Structure to design on (449 residues):
């Protein structure tokens, strides 16, 4: 079973040289720590920066320089600042190559829910609805099972939807899934995880074909 | 032409109850601190506030929630404010949550003189309820209207007495968009300079959009989420 950092590490293996990448809040943010050697990517944060650098050293935090998670960050040579309309303009226009998001639920048809639990938690969608409506290549990083032991890979989302038919790949603590017209296709299994556990932890349609390779992390 | 005001109290003198106000900033970054303090002091009520976030409990727009001055909040993300969540769940506060890019682009549309825009954000979600959907190519889009706000209040790094503005780093965010979108735009700046001192090639907001400007005082610039890298 993967830790949150290992989920991030596995997603980082999807990065390609020259990619412009938007990382959401939570596990997705950790992907930046595992960018493979020899690969250069430019990180976009939707509050208005391309070329987001690492967190600053203590004492060098700048309140005017944050990412969309409101964390203090730094600039890099070649960084550029822009306003929020341009930021979502480049997202809407399909210029961002890869988007990594967290989710509360994902459905077997690629719907995602991650912004509201009616009557309980109302945080808002932030930029998530814009991202899922426009990004061509979205990977969801999430825990497959909630604290009550229930699967979050579902036939249909029970929570309010963030976007329809938009998720193509999910990486969880248990495995890597492609979402196709057949449902959740298991592509890789995490070290130490059995196919039985995958089956128990997937409420939506699950497709397991041939030998499933073990994830390299 | 005199756009220069002495302070926030004077620049905001004619804001009254039940008005709609755009407020710049993202989280606590680039928010018009002096103007928010002045609004709290002034005690105007029944406001509709449009801003990406609602501050935190004791800073930013959160201060205006504590004093119950906000009737309606239009925002994209409000996760950092317990008082906001309480007022929302109890029904005391009317809240419209909209996608962040939609919020930005509805400001842009107002500033560019366009009545509405089409965006794919929110199609198939509760955000789409009651909205016109139109198909372009093989994709559906929602019709979203430009904002119509009485005032826009923004924060810039530097401004000149003609109202030209320059923002600093990600404190830019929604500020230049909202600056274009108010019927009356008020800018508070850290440094107020004479015309000619800002390089015309690097001005972000042309002064034509800015009606009033004042030099803010005592910026706290609170950091919401301080993250650091250990020194090697």
């Amino acid at each position: 079973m993967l830790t949150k950092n290992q989920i991030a590490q596995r997603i980082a293996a999807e990065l390609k040289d020259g990619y412009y990448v938007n990382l959401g809040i939570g596990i997705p943010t950790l992907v930046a720590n595992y960018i493979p050697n020899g690969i250069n990517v430019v990180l976009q944060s939707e509050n208005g920066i391309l070329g987001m650098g690492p967190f600053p050293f203590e004492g060098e935090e700048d309140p005017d320089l944050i990412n969309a998670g409101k964390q203090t960050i730094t600039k890099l040579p070649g960084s550029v600042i822009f306003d929020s309309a341009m930021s979502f303009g480049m997202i809407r226009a399909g210029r961002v190559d890869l988007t990594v998001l967290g989710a509360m639920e994902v459905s077997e048809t690629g719907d995602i829910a991650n912004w509201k639990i009616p009557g309980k938690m109302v945080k808002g969608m932030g930029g998530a609805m814009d991202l899922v409506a426009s990004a061509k290549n979205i990977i969801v990083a999430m825990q497959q099972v909630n604290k009550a032991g229930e699967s979050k890979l579902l036939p249909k989302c029970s929570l309010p939807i963030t976007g329809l038919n938009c998720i193509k790949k999910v990486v969880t603590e248990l495995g890597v899934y492609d979402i196709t017209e057949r449902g959740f296709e298991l592509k890789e299994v995490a070290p130490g995880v059995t196919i039985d556990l995958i089956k128990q932890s997937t409420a939506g349609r699950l497709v397991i074909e041939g030998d499933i390779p073990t994830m390299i992390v | 032409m005199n756009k220069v005001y002495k302070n926030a109290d004077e620049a905001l003198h004619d804001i009254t109850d039940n008005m709609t106000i755009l407020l710049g900033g993202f989280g606590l970054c680039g928010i018009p601190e002096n103007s928010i303090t002045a609004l709290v002091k002034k005690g105007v009520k029944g406001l509709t506030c449009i801003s990406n976030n609602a501050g935190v409990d004791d800073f930013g727009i959160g201060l205006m929630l504590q004093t119950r001055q906000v009737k309606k909040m239009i925002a994209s993300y409000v996760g950092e404010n317990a008082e906001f969540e309480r007022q929302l769940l109890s029904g005391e506060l009317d809240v419209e949550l909209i996608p962040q890019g939609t919020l930005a682009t509805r400001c842009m549309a107002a500033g560019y003189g366009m009545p509405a825009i089409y965006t794919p954000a929110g199609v198939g979600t509760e955000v789409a309820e009651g909205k016109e959907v139109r198909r372009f190519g093989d994709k559906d889009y929602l019709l979203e209207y430009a904002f119509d706000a009485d005032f826009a209040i923004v924060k810039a790094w530097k401004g000149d007495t003609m109202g030209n503005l320059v923002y600093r780093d990600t404190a830019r965010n929604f500020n230049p968009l909202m600056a274009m979108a108010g019927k009356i735009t008020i800018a508070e700046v850290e440094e107020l300079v004479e015309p000619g001192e800002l390089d015309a090639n690097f001005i972000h907001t042309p002064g034509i959009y800015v009606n009033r400007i004042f030099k803010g005082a005592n910026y706290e610039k609170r950091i919401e989420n301080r993250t650091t890298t250990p020194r090697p």
Q: What stands out?
A: The domain at 4-207 of chain A is CATH 3.40.1080.10 (Glutaconate Coenzyme A-transferase). Chain A has a mean pLDDT of 96. The longest strand of chain A covers residues 74-81. Chain A has one domain: 4-207.
